[in-house]
Design a protein that fits this description.
By secondary structure, the chain is an all-alpha fold. It has helices at about 20-25, 30-35, 55-70, 75-85, 90-115, 120-130, 135-145, 145-155, 175-185, 190-205, 210-244; strands at about 45, 50-55. The longest helix has about 35 residues, at about 210-244. One of its GO terms (molecular function) is DNA binding.
Length: about 240
């Protein structure tokens, strides 16, 4: 059963103006209104003349929301803060768990991609591997994507899987290593043209470019993991305050 936190009504004597929240969070007053409109913070109360007024709790939530945006991205941060503001703590924590799990899975994919460009390992896989090739469905399942994704990668020229005697695609361990590499680089916003160039380098025994690309992605991923951890820490602090 989900743990629900009763959110108390905002204090009608709230005295913080939009400019006060803006200064506290180092953003513009219009950004404060945007965060409110998107549900990152509860709605402001209105004075008799219609001016917005906020509480210290709303400022605290705004600061956490901005940290979450950095650590989780806009969409997930919004889901988390909307859940917190609605009292659905379990719903908020489910998003944090998924974010950290996604980062962990990408780190594992990155490790496999790094293995795939090791010259000795690639040579061993291509010449001495007797593992039965996988169908397109099995290969897609191994990567956690759909067969349509692999067909798309093929259509744009980044992969060219061999065909069995019956004309069906099949994927050897070497091919799977390249698929891991494509997946990691796509997650790092590499274009298909850039990925094709890197894979071409592997085929000519020149893995330096691919190694540099993966090293860059490793650095990015470490930074993202630290930012996600910091965001989660801030979120837990906010939840503890609201539950006290």
């Amino acid at each position: 059963m989900a743990e629900n936190l009763a959110v108390a009504p905002e204090d009608p004597t709230a005295t913080l103006r939009p400019i006060d929240l803006a200064r506290g969070a180092d953003i513009s007053p219009s950004s404060v209104r945007m965060y409110e409109a998107e549900g990152f913070i509860p709605p402001a109360v209105r004075t008799a003349t219609g001016h917005r007024r906020y509480t210290p709790s709303q400022l605290r939530r705004l600061l956490v929301a901005r940290t979450l945006r950095t650590g989780y991205g806009w969409s997930d941060a919004r889901v988390v803060m909307r859940a917190v503001n609605a009292g659905d703590i379990d719903g908020a924590l489910a998003v944090t768990n998924r974010r950290h799990a996604d980062l962990h899975r990408e780190a594992e994919r990155l490790g496999r991609a790094i293995d795939a460009i090791d010259d000795a390992q690639l040579e061993q896989r291509s010449t001495g591997d007797t593992i039965r090739p996988l169908s397109i469905g099995a290969a897609a399942a191994r990567l956690g994507v759909t067969p349509a994704t692999l067909r798309h990668w093929e259509s744009v020229g980044v992969i060219d899987p061999p065909r069995a005697a019956n004309g069906r695609r099949h994927y050897r361990p070497t091919d799977l290593g390249q698929l891991e590499l494509v997946q990691v680089l796509r997650s790092a916003d590499y274009s298909f043209a850039a990925i094709a160039e890197l894979l071409a380098g592997l085929k000519t025994d020149d893995p330096a470019q691919a190694r540099r690309a993966l090293a860059t992605r490793q650095s990015q991923l470490r930074h993202q993991s630290r930012e996600a951890a910091r965001a989660t820490h801030e979120l837990y602090g906010l939840i503890a305050e609201l539950q006290s």
